[in-house]
Amino acid sequence: MDRLEAGWRQHVPAFLNAVSTVGAFGHELSRTRRELNELRELHEAATTNASRGLEDVRTELAQEVRTELAQSGESMRADLRSFVQRADGSIEKLWERIEFVRREIMFEMAYGGAATKRSDAKPAGRIINQPLIDEQRRAGHVRLNIGCGHIPLDGYINVDMRDLPGVDIVADVADIPVEPRSINEIFSAHLMEHFPQEEVRRRLLPYWRDLLVEGGTFRAIVPDGEAMLAGAAAGTYAFEDFREVLFGAQDYEGDFHFNMFTPASLSTLLQEAGFRDVVVPVKGRPNGKCFEFEIQAVRA
Ligand SMILES: C[S@@+](CC[C@H](N)C(=O)[O-])C[C@H]1O[C@@H](n2cnc3c(N)ncnc32)[C@H](O)[C@@H]1O
Fold it and tell me: Is 176 in the pocket of ligand 1 (CB under 6 A)?
């Protein structure tokens, strides 16, 4: 019994200790279980949130892509529309440019540097009637009648490339031996149609303008293309007459026609060359085989 009691006494503290440890262990165990539960709930919530978030992101992305596609589609359509419009304009401009370059090349070939060395280049001008020129200079009123032919005019210095009676200066009308800005009036009758359009436009009109003093007058009489066409169309103007005026009588060099004007077309050429106050006092006037108009303008 004593031994039993002694043994019991010996083991009671350990037993009591063990019993108290079991309680603490149980307590610890339930705390751990609670924490585990909390963790599981957190995990579940996180997983749910994550998958919902992913779904939201996917929906948002899809919406953005759709919007982006719609916008870029619209802007591509707009780009395409404006490209087509621009292309239309550019093609037109390109043609204009090509036509411009073609005319430049043709003009250079015909009248450019090389052309001045052509065998048909006119000799330098020759003054025959210097006293008349001096007299007009003194009077401060120098007047040229260029391409006078057989019809020299009183009160004018008559110029022609042919040395005909009454001619005061034998010269090419594109190279008259007078100073720029020294002439008060330039007159011509049935001369301008003897030159191709580009030569009139680019060389002759600017050259004649440069010979005139500021405010100087340019006057010309030319066949009236408008009146003759109307007459030919109405059957009141003979084809043979029309043909001859169109191409010239062709009797000698310088008697060929290369151009035809209307009051409107020559007015435009004069304005382009730097003339102002263009007026057409006479139109459709019969003269021999042709109808003619008169035009005058002032050096701007
Ligand atoms: C049809 S006649 C006109 C003559 C006159 N003015 C008249 O009203 O009947 C043309 C004249 O221009 C002259 N002519 C043509 N080309 C010329 C040029 N490059 N330089 C000088 N005279 C030119 C010709 O010699 C010709 O006498």
Answer: no
What average pLDDT does the chain have?
A: 88
183-189 vs 157-160, strand pairing mode: unpaired
pLDDT digits (tens, 9 = 90+) for 50-62: 777 778 878 888 8
Is there an atom of ligand 1 within 6 Å of 173 CB? yes
Contact 202, 266 (CB under 8 A): no
Ligand 1 centroid to Cα of residue 112, in Å, is: 23
Residue 178 CB–ligand 1 contact under 6 Å: no
Angle, alpha carbons 180-185-186 (nearest 5°): 80
pLDDT band, residue 71 (cuts 50/70/90): confident
Atom of ligand 1 nearest to the CA of 173: 20
Better-predicted residue by pLDDT, 37 or 151? 151
Q: What is the pLDDT of residues 158-206, one digit of tens each?
A: 999 999 999 999 999 999 999 999 999 999 999 999 999 999 999 999 9
Atom of ligand 1 nearest to the CA of 195: 16
For ligand 1, mutation pick of 191, 200, 222, 257 (most atoms within 8 Å of CB): 191
